[in-house]
Amino acid sequence: MNLSRQTGDVLGKLKAHLAENQYPLNSRMPSERDLCRELGVKRTALRKALDELEADGQIWRHVGRGTFIGSRPVENTNDVSFIASRKNPADVMQTRLIIEPELARLAALHATSADIRKMEQCIRKTKAAREWRLYEAWDNNFHRSIAAASRNKLLLTLFDTLNTVRRAVVWGRRRTTTLGPDFKHHSYSEHDAILAAIAERNLDLAAECMRQHLSTVGSNLLELHGFKD
153-187 burial, b for 16+ CB within 10 Å, e for fewer? Predict the structure, then answer.
C-alpha cells in the first residue's frame, strides 16, 4: 500500500472515531499512543492524518499538552481576555454582522465540494444534538467551515479571534437548561438557507442569509441576557 493511500485509510478511521465520540469543542483527544492502539495504525501514519485534520481546522495540537478539538485559539490569549472582559454580547453580534456575511459571500465563490460536505455534516450534527453544548459545538463548526471555505487566511484569523472572544463573552453566561434546541429552532432552516445559497454560488444571497441568521441570533441572545441594542 502506498503512503498516500495508507494516510487516507488512517484519516478515514480517525474521522469515524471523531464522529462516533463527538468530543466537545476544545476538549482533549486521547494520546497518539492510545489512538494508535484503538485504531490499529502506526504512529507515522496517524501523525500525517492528524496533520491533515489540523490543516483543515478540525483539531489543533500543542507540544506537551496534547491534541484538541476545534481550531487553534489565538496565541495571545492575554489580549483576547482583555478584550472579552470589556465587551458584551451586543458588541460581539455587531462585529459578527460585519464579518460573517462577507465570509459567506466568499465561501459561495470559493467553496469546494468537500467544503459543502463538511457544512452539511455540521448541519446534521446540530439537528441531532440533544444538549446545548453539542449543538453549540457543531454550530461553531458550521460557521467556521464557512470561514475556512472563504480561502482568505487573514479573514479566517480574524474570525478565530472573534470566535474566541464570542465564547468568552457569550458562552461564559450559563444557560438555565442543558437540553438542546427543539425541532422548531430558527437556526435549522436558516443554516439550510445559507448552505443552499453557498452551494448555488449565489454570493449576494449567501451574504444576506447569513446576515438574517445572525440578526435573529443576536435578537434572541440580547433578550436572553437582558441587553438592549
Answer: eebbeebbbbbbbbbbbbeeeeeeeeebbeeeeeb
Contact call for residues 136 and 185 (beta carbons, < 8 A)? no
d(CA 158, CA 168): 16
Rounded Cα distance between 67 and 175, Å, is: 28
Number of C-alpha atoms within 13 angstroms, CB side, residue 18? 25
Task: Output phi, psi for 152, to 5 deg.
Answer: -115, 105
pLDDT digit string (tens) for 61-70? Answer: 887 888 998 8
Q: Are 99 and 162 in contact (CB under 8 A)?
A: yes
Choose the weakest-confidence range: 4-8, 13-17, 44-48, 212-216. Answer: 4-8
CB 36 within 8 A of CB 74: no
C-alpha cell, 150? 472563504
| All cell numbers assigned to 82 | 482583555
How far apart are the C-alpha atoms of 45 and 6, rounded to whole Å? 7
d(CA 154, CA 161): 11
Say whether pTM exceeds 0.85: no
Q: Which residues contact 19 (CB under 8 A, 6 or more apart)?
A: none
149 neighbors 110 (Cβ within 8 angstroms): yes
- C-alpha 73/C-alpha 157 separation (Å) is 10
Virtual CA dihedral for 206, 71, 23, 5, nearest 10 degrees? 90
In single-letter form, the type of residue at position 142 comes to F
